[in-house]
Amino acid sequence: MTLETLRKYCLSFPHSTEDVQWGNDLLFRIGGKIFAATALNSAPDFQVSFKCTPEEFAELTEREGIIPAPYVARYHWVSVQKGDALTDAEFRRLIRDSYQMVSAKLPAKVRKKLLSTA
Questions:
Q1: What pLDDT is recorded for position 40?
Q2: Most buried by CB count within 10 Å: which residue of 9, 14, 19, 53?
Q3: Which pTM does this prediction carry?
Q4: What is the C-alpha radius of gyration for the chain, rounded to an integer number of angstroms?
């Protein structure tokens, strides 16, 4: 997966937004909450972080090229350090799952507002 592919995929989700924060991190959000992040200068290796289930966290961090995400690992976020650590299909499923998990935890007021703008 490339940065542009990731960007297009993340922005294809309903109500997802992107912004740059912390100088060089491209963040993808739903309702103001981050569901995926990548460094804009991660060349030559593509890096991306996202939320996953506790079970997948344990499984993924055993793979070469995937580590617990700094600062947010306690919330079951992983950081994919090597682009070939996951297939494109795995990337897509895991990022979609992250979007769904973050979206499901949004406050009711935020979810209602998002639904009213659909």
A1: 84
A2: 9
A3: 0.90
A4: 14
